[in-house]
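Dock uridine-5'-diphosphate; give full complex structure.
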Amino acid sequence: MRSPITTARSLADYEAVTPDDQMAALYSTADDLGDVRVLHLNSTATGGGVAEILHSLVPLSNDLGIDTDWQVMDAEESFFEVTKAMHNALQGQDVTFTEEMEATYRRVTERNATALDGQYDVVVLHDPQTLGMARELKDRFPDTRIVWRCHIDLTDANERYLQAVVDDVRRVDHAVFSRPEYGRGVDVPTSIIHPSIDPLTDKNRPLDREELAVERDRLFPIEFGDDSPVITQVSRFDPWKDQFGTIEMYRRIKDAVPGAQLVLAGGMADDDPEGREVYEEVVAATADDPDVHLLTNQPDTTIDFLQRESAVVVQKSLREGFGLVVSEALWKRTPVIGSTVGGIPLQIEDGKNGYLVDPDDVDGAAARLERLLADDDLRRQLGERGRETVRERFLLPRHLLDYTELFLGVRDGANDPNEPRASRTDADRS
Ligand code: UDP
């Protein structure tokens, strides 16, 4: 197991974007919590939303005075092939679960749990990759509260896999989902917490004039002009992210908007062996169009620039846990066309800060894209509202407060299993 290096954060730097009552609640809840030691455990230090969140949440939590570590499992390729199959099955794909796969999963999770040293009061296991560690951890550290933080949508899960997960979840003290529907069949106390973005990272902070010029040059020959609007999707290359649907949508508007360009930016996460394959397929499908640009492993400032300077951002996923990229783009005042899956409808209000379409509705998405590209005022209006949506509900301090309250609850053994605690963002809405 290894501890990723994170950059220090100071809560004071977030004051400008955090409501006063939230700031006060953070300090008082942390005070109530006293000396707890917390560990977040996941399966990759880079790539994907979970790593993105932990890079910010962990140092900010320490700044608040909560002693918080982050460790990443040590695992080989064969394990990640099994966990990617699990991930796909839990999102609804028909995948067989062989005894050999189960044995690989058990061997690696047990090995990691055995290797864990240090005594923690709360251990947060992120996603199915780490969940298997719960058995061993409970035996070794009976006083430690174990929380499973599931970031994926289980509503359509393949039953065989869901059963395996539900069996393991019995070993944890508490489970956390992004939406109440995701936790069906889970019979431990649950909470709902919405993810967040960090407004101060290189990915999300404002870029100054010089930085904008540097990024513009770097991205040449992509042009960001009134007659050459850029449509961007930022996602791992993964079948669920539906880059092919986005390409199809772009093709349908190309005649009407000949200067339009499509950018598909995607990294390959360490724990995602499918990425290379999907990327090659996307390369083959777009090789004949010089206005489609594929970018891999770009620095955060480039992702920031793309989300900021594109006319429209698209996230037409077929399944999505939350979809941090939606909040990232909305924060930068860029309207998003997203699908009605997972956490996307939590972030997009149709017609208000973007548009929602069914995941397989390419025509509907293309019609909305064409409309947005034709109307600068509409884009600006939606963009302003998107900024507000994120400021109110999806920034890091609110997320940290939800976790702090959760730790207080699990430490005291609170929470009724039949009544998921709402995330503060839900409470704020009412
Ligand atoms: N990301 C990135 N570069 C890429 C692709 C993705 O930095 O080329 C980041 C993206 O900005 C976001 C995260 O990876 O912060 C993806 O999170 P999301 O919740 O959208 O999807 P996940 O990959 O977790 O399914």
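Observed: The longest strand covers residues 37-42.
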